[in-house]
Amino acid sequence: MIMRSADPFDALFAFQQALENRLSGDWFGGTTAGMGSYPPINVFQQGDDLVAIIELPGINKEELNIQSKENTIRIAGRKNIDYPEDISLHRRERLSGDFDRTLVVPMQIDPDGIKAEYNDGLLALFIPRAEQDKPRTIEIR
Amino acid sequence: MAGEQELQVQQKREVDRAQEPTTPMRAFLPTTDIFENEDALTVVLEMPGVDKSNIDVDIENGTLTVEGRINFDKYKDMQPTYSEYNVGPYRRSFRISNRVDQDKIKAEMRDGVMTLVLPKAEEAKPRRIEVT
Fold it and tell me: Which of B25, B78, B84 shows the shortest C-beta gap to A51?
């Protein structure tokens, strides 16, 4: 639960703690998604649906390839860093290279309904839950 | 070559707190490249989730400080289910020489990556010394 609070710093801290508590969870199970693969992913629930938010700063949208099939989502691409010529590098922390990651979502999703947005270096995948997977209220007669 | 390698996740490093902050909130260090040529010093910082209206760049007493804030409204009504990285503001400071022309600093933000170009002051540029 995200605690509601009038103070934005309290709200932020509660959010950070909620993320911390979900660290190294096994929601994806023992799939190829595995911890430590690039890019890092956070998954949220929004109503019935899922939202995956992936940190991918400085990517060219054209170099990003997202595929979905049944409950599997593949995110592949490359991150290029171009340095100008004739420079001396003082500090080099940013990494470039290829990535390819496959997620197996542990619930039934609608693979055709997935929407992707890339803004401010974050890739957001909106993943609708399959109709037949949504919980139903069972009435007692 | 560098382009062939597979990308690894870099764990976010927390900002070292020289002074105890009043809030328990965490801030993180942006992953940074710094390079230099004859004309300018360039600082490139990765701050995913920060848009250009949420950045402060400040130079005081030879210290360059960059801060990027996250807009948390985007996370409203979302319950964390699984997480591999934490989310928070970015902050990082660098000591720079006073030979930078502070009036001509240029900043550009694109896809969560900020590029700061700090032009060198005229007298700081290298001069060819003629041997006579």
Answer: B78
Nearest CA in chain B to A119: B111
**B71 Cβ contact partners less than 8 Å away, ≥ 6 residues apart:** B49, B51, B54
Structure tokens at B24: 């328990």
B91: CATH = 2.60.40.790
- Which residue type is seen at A140? I
Pairwise CA distance, residues B25 & A19, whole Å = 13
Which tens digits make up the pLDDT trace of A93-133?
999 999 999 888 888 999 899 999 999 999 999 999 998 88
In a domain, B17, yes or no: no
Residue B15 CB neighbour total at 10 angstroms: 17
The count of domains in chain B is: 1
**Dist. CA A38–CA A33, nearest whole Å:** 9
Rounded CA-CA distance A99/B34 in Å is 24
Helix (H, G, I), strand (E, B) or coil at B89: coil
Query: What is the nearest CA distance from B130 to chain A, expressed in angstroms?
Result: 22
| Cα(B62)–Cα(B100) distance, integer angstroms | 9
Supply the pTM of this predicted model.
Answer: 0.84
Q: What distance lies between CA A98 and its chain's CA centroid? A: 17
Q: How far apart are CA A38 and CA A131, in angstroms?
A: 31
Residue B103 is assigned to a structural domain of this protein: yes
* Residue B100 domain-assigned (yes or no): yes
- Domain range for B38 is 30-73+85-124
